[in-house]
Design a protein that fits this description.
The protein is mainly alpha-helical and 108 residues long. The model has no long low-confidence stretch (mean pLDDT 88).
Amino acid sequence: MDQPRSLIFNILPVYPLDGGQILRALLWFPLGEIRSLQIASVIGLVGSIGLAGLMLLLGTPIFWTAIMSLFLISRAIAGWQYAKALVLEEEATRAARLGSDNSGAADQ
């Protein structure tokens, strides 16, 4: 009886669970790496808070609810921070490329 429950739990579109990874992969092509990670992270954060509330309503022991919720929330926040780091890296690369293009034009 635990396996179907585990399967359903794991395919929820809550990042970093498998369902959240699938969601991110589906969004990657139309939206790009950074935007897909941002969306998956926000959905993961909201979903993990909602899941914690549902678990409390269903009477799951508070210890396991807290452990799981803290893990999911921390990973969703880490995903958001990684997306922010990717944005900064992309901006720095773009600025360096523009700077090298402008310096080459000034030499001629």
